[in-house]
């Protein structure tokens, strides 16, 4: 029998979430972002579930190769662009489009003289990560289009604070970044600017395309707003079983370092999930899990392959009870907040050793 832990990936939820983002895009093309193994959901699953997307966006040529092997025939985009000269030929052979964010990439294209490379100019409008300043875009466009075989598709930028929670008094608010973009945002220039948060919360952001990321997987980009409020459905549910129960007296300790000490006689459920499965070791006592229809608190330090929960007040919890670490009943953002991180990190960190089960019906 395999170890009793698995991640269920709901393909129908992925399709539904894409439909929601398509509606929010209001006529703009939709790039489905599938980097980080489709945010932990499996790139092959994303190719299937996002068949109605206009394109897939990732950061690695190996992902593009896998997507093509899985039958993806539409557009593909490298969000960080190519990394050295050896990447340029596959851009042509795989028909992969690329972000251009730095002068060195332009120089490599000039040296390579490619047959057919389609480029998107990255604009730094305030994120200060990748991209050219807005005033440099005309020069960059001229440099790229002077290279035979190179075609410029549009301009791209990224918002640092598109979530409503992050808007107040930020140097790089959506409004300020749009202002810095100037005519690139509001003129006739083709543009792809909106990420999940901007697509959901900022209808004033224009352009011809959006890049839908975490919302496609049913996770709200703003942890203060639920997925349910946004009309999206969590597509990943991480589940493990209780494999042992310890009856301990008051004053007894649980786990490495004896961090959790029972204040009363307690029932402790041992769950077949640990940090090697992607559940953070930094999770504190009291962090929530869902078992037998109730929330149970984490008790003690997470170890490599196991964690412990206090099921004293859940008499229905027993050997073999399924424990949801995050998913349909327990939002991943709530779990992530318990250890000071975001839902993105947890779903992306799902370990490869965790078996995947596909759910294709509601």
Summarize this, please?
This protein has 362 residues and is α/β, with parallel strands linked by helices.
Overview of this protein structure:
The longest helix is centred in the first third of the chain and has 15 residues. It is built from 13 helices and 18 strands. The model has no long low-confidence stretch (mean pLDDT 96). With 362 residues, the protein is of the alpha/beta class.
Class based on secondary structure composition and strand pairing: alpha/beta
Task: Kindly report how far apart the N and C termini lie.
Answer: 27 Å
Largest sheet at a glance? 8 strands, mixed
Low-confidence sequence ranges: none
Instruction: Provide the β-strand percentage band.
Output: 15-25%
Query: Please, what is the oligomeric state?
Result: single chain
Rg over alpha carbons: 23 Å
Categorize the overall geometry.
Answer: elongated
Features:
about 350 residues; alpha/beta; 8-stranded mixed beta sheet; 8-stranded parallel barrel; 13 helices; about 25% helix; about 25% strand; elongated
Please specify the SSE layout and strand pairing:
Blueprint: E1 5-10, H1 11-25, E2 29-33, H2 35-39, H3 43-49, E3 55-58, H4 61-69, E4 75-78, H5 88-93, E5 97-100, H6 103-112, E6 117-122, H7 137-145, E7 150-156, H8 174-181, H9 183-186, E8 191-194, H10 196-201, E9 209-212, H11 227-230, E10 236-248, E11 253-254, E12 260-261, E13 266-271, E14 288-291, E15 294-297, E16 307-310, E17 322-326, H12 332-338, H13 343-348, E18 356-359
Parallel strand pairs: 1-18, 2-3, 2-9, 3-4, 4-5, 5-6, 6-7, 7-8, 8-9
Antiparallel strand pairs: 1-10, 10-13, 10-17, 11-12, 13-16, 14-15, 14-17
Helix pairs in contact: 1-3
């Amino acid at each position: 029998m395999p170890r009793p832990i698995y991640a269920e990936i709901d393909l129908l939820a992925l399709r539904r979430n894409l439909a929601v983002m398509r509606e929010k895009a209001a006529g703009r093309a939709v790039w489905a972002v599938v980097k980080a193994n489709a945010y932990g959901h499996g790139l092959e699953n994303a190719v299937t579930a996002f068949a109605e997307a206009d394109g897939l966006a990732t950061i690695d040529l190996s992902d593009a190769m896998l997507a093509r092997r899985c039958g993806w025939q539409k557009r593909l985009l490298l969000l960080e662009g190519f990394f050295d000269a050896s990447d340029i030929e596959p851009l042509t052979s795989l028909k992969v489009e690329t972000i251009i964010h730095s002068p060195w990439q332009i120089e490599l294209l000039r040296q390579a003289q490619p047959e057919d490379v389609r480029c998107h100019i990255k604009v730094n409008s305030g994120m200060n990560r990748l991209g050219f300043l807005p005033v440099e875009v005309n020069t960059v466009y001229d440099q790229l289009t002077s290279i035979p075989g190179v075609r410029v598709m549009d301009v791209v930028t990224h918002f640092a604070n598109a979530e409503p929670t992050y808007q107040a008094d930020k140097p790089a608010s959506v409004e300020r970044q749009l202002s810095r973009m100037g005519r690139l945002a509001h003129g006739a220039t083709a543009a792809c600017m909106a990420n999940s948060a901007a697509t959901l919360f900022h209808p004033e952001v224009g352009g011809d395309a959006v890049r839908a990321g975490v919302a496609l997987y049913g996770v709200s980009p703003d942890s203060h707003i639920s997925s349910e409020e946004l009309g999206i459905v969590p597509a990943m549910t991480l589940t493990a079983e209780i494999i042992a129960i310890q009856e301990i007296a008051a004053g007894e300790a649980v786990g490495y370092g004896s961090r959790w000490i029972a204040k009363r006689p307690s029932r402790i459920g041992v769950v077949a999930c640990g940090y090697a499965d992607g559940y953070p070791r930094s999770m504190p006592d009291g962090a929530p899990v869902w078992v037998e229809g109730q929330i149970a608190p984490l008790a003690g330090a997470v170890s490599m392959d196991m964690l412990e929960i206090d099921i004293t007040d859940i008499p229905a919890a027993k050997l073999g009870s399924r424990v949801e670490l995050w998913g349909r009943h327990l939002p991943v953002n709530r779990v992530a907040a318990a250890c000071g991180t975001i839902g993105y990190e947890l779903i992306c960190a799902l370990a490869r050793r965790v078996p995947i089960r596909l759910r294709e019906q509601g």
